[in-house]
Amino acid sequence: MSIGFYDAKSVNVIINGTYITGFGENTFVSCEKDEEQAVAHVGARGEVALAHKNNPLGSVKLTLMSTSPQIGMLTRLARDKKVFTIWVVSHNQPRERIGGTKAVIKKLPAAAFAAELEDREFEIQVLDYTHIVS
Questions:
Q1: DSSP bridge pairs for 42
Q2: For the chain, how big is the Rg over CA atoms in Å?
Q3: Nearest to 79 by CA among 111, 104, 61
Q4: Three-class SS of residue 94?
Q5: What are the tens digits of pLDDT across the range 27-51?
């Protein structure tokens, strides 16, 4: 019987060569393609046709503690409407590399201040989204 192991410390998020730190609790990064890869169409007589979608867009959501040292950098990227690279790299098994070379921040996260730390969620649009599993 094989046992798989996962370690959150083996997952890195790298934006323009900077390693992001200060992640929030629970799900700190999520990645997904914005649209289905293929759509099946069925005719009146049951014939099936398949349409391959060529939409290269994907999204990466980062949940950071409000004390993350990279909040300033991400806020400047959003404010200045800069295009940047983003890679989410998992050294767990299986190894994964998700992201792209052209990304923008969709909008600044909500800022909340309370008696305890509040997380900030950055949603990033990846224009050339790729997901490699090895």
A1: 48
A2: 18
A3: 104
A4: coil
A5: 999 999 999 999 999 999 999 999 9
